[in-house]
Amino acid sequence: MSDTEVLLEEAAAYLKKKDVEHIRQALEFSRAAHEGQFRKSGEPYISHPIAVARILTPLHMDAQAIMAALLHDVMEDTATAKEQIEEKFSKPVAELVDGLSKLNKIEFETKEDAQAENFRKMLLAMTRDVRVILIKLADRLHNMRTLDSMTRVKSKRIARETMEIYAPIANRLGLNTIYQELEDLSFKFLYPTRYSVLSKALKVARGNRREVVSKILDAITLRLQENQLDAQVQGREKHLYGIYRKMKMKSLEFAEVLDIYGFRVLVEKPSDCYLALGLLHGLYKPIPGKFKDYIAIPKANGYQSLHTTLFGPYGTPIEVQIRTVEMHKIAEAGVASHWLYKTEQTPITELHQKTHQWLQSLLESLSQSGDSVEFLEHLKVDLFPDEVYVFTPKGRILALPRGATTVDFAYSVHTDIGNRCVAAKVNFELVPLRTRLRNGDRVEIITAPHANPNPAWLGFVETSRARSQIRHFLKTMHFQESATLGERLLNQTLSSLGLKAQDIDSARWDKLLKDTGAKSRDEILADIGLGRRLNIVIAHQLARVGEPGTEEQSGAPFTILGTEGMAVQFGKCCMPIPGDPIIGVITSGQGLVVHTHDCPTLRKGRNTSDKWLDVAWDKNINRPFSVNIKLIVANQRGVLAKAAAAIAKADSNIENVHFTNEGEYTTLYFTLQVNNRLHLANAMRRLRKIPEVIRIMRVKSAPI
Length: 704
Known about the structure:
The chain is α+β, with helices and mostly antiparallel strands. The chain folds into 5 domains: 3-190, Hypothetical protein af1432; 198-340, Beta Polymerase, domain 2; 386-462, Ubiquitin-like (UB roll), CATH 3.10.20; 472-617, no CATH class; 625-699, Alpha-Beta Plaits. The strands form 6 sheets. Strands 1, 2, 3, 4, 5 and 6 form a 6-stranded mixed beta sheet that branches. Strands 13-15-14-16 form a 4-stranded mixed beta sheet. Helix 1 (3-12) runs antiparallel to helix 2.
């Protein structure tokens, strides 16, 4: 029997006659479209779409999905257009095929950009129809099964992509069988020697220990039967990469991992799961700390089961999973179980709702990411399934990735809670925001109305949601601040041309937007503030140089308010404070960076005059600035306390302090907060009065 006949027979086992006929038509259309095309292995290309469709039939996917699987490459590899597919096979089938087609007609700078953009397109299609990813996973699985025909470099690249993206997605959707095979095949091509050695060792070990496994299986079955509990007991084999991962994570020898045998107990009702658990704990002693209840608290992919590890005969640890038959169906097929066990009355399951929520959260992350590569980074972070379960103050359970912090928790509750977060309590005690959460923690977030995310949070948050929301907020804030700065810079330049901002009518702005390709006035202003466009050039374009009244005049220096946020930065190389003579440098991507006149790092670039800006401090600045000072003092008891007291009397705050001891003398380094040079002079005058102070000076360099 040919593959074509087998496919149609498998489809006929659960689909209506007219659906099977539509599948036959799609198959013949695909065969004709791919006529003359061959795979790397030398097989006719049509063998691949048929194999993909055959991976989906055991999941009882509907006719549209099977047809899309058969047609999934015709738009990408042949001259077939989406409209043709829609006309011949319906719009839903055409949408599925379009969602599966790569963006091969667009040129990308790097393979990473192309990969990221393809995932972005696939995600958008997934949010409309989850069948897209099910077909894509089947496509990837068959490609992995036939990867031997590829070059070593290409097969390794595809295997790594599968291990990092596709296998975790299959796991996240609960497709356990596909997930495990994808991992094992990726392992085979990424680490062929390790795969070969481990595979042989596993085969030998299974043969040697068959008798022990059989004895445990019989003992468990007998105990359940004696207590009139109707149950199926199965031996459960660990997949190869799962064994390797455990060896690597826990630094175990192969024999130590194989000592943990796997068994699965299937019962009828959830209450029977707990009854079976009690019976097994009576048969063999449980290992403390090795029990997990995924029935009361299911995993994010809908997985439910009781897990326990027991001391078996001869001291052998035994892993046992206990679940209902219904739970087992979902554990093996995940989100695809909706099609596998579909009836006329099948409702939208909770698993489907959770999957939809997950896809929506990814879509939100995509919309807030700066580019596709950044989104792909978020996606990879989001796909790690190891979770901790924590409680809100009202007792609601939230699942977070292992390693998640209180900030991750805040963003998982609501974006506004994360953005306004200032402190956190774990189990009623105040903790740092970077505190990593553990199973069972009760977490309470304290917010303030005017608080904002701290860029430092990006260094410790674990979830893609938190990371994307923080980045989005900072980018938005940076954009707004940059636009405000850009407007001030442009207005000053217009003034030097003898014009006022209100003199520039909307027609000139519209022409400028058209000429520059910018989307809005704010975009141009933000680009000026970030140094991506020169204010002088934009001002001349708006002023239409050559017209009467546009002669350039010398303008007043640009004033620094000190409150411009991220749009105006102060050079770490010289740490200017109000009162210092200063100069501004427009740096592309950073905006305006303020330096002192004598900053040594600026001497090399003095010839690029179009990037330099004459700046001056605003008279009404009233905020603290960081400054470094160095004290050489006699090495005597209590001198540090005297210095700290003098600084406090000067109404200054100490940000940081450290010292070096050099025999009779000690060098103290302070980072102080001062309002201006006068304030600094007052603090240094008080320090000079300390008898032990031998020398004091300001240090113009990065914070200590």
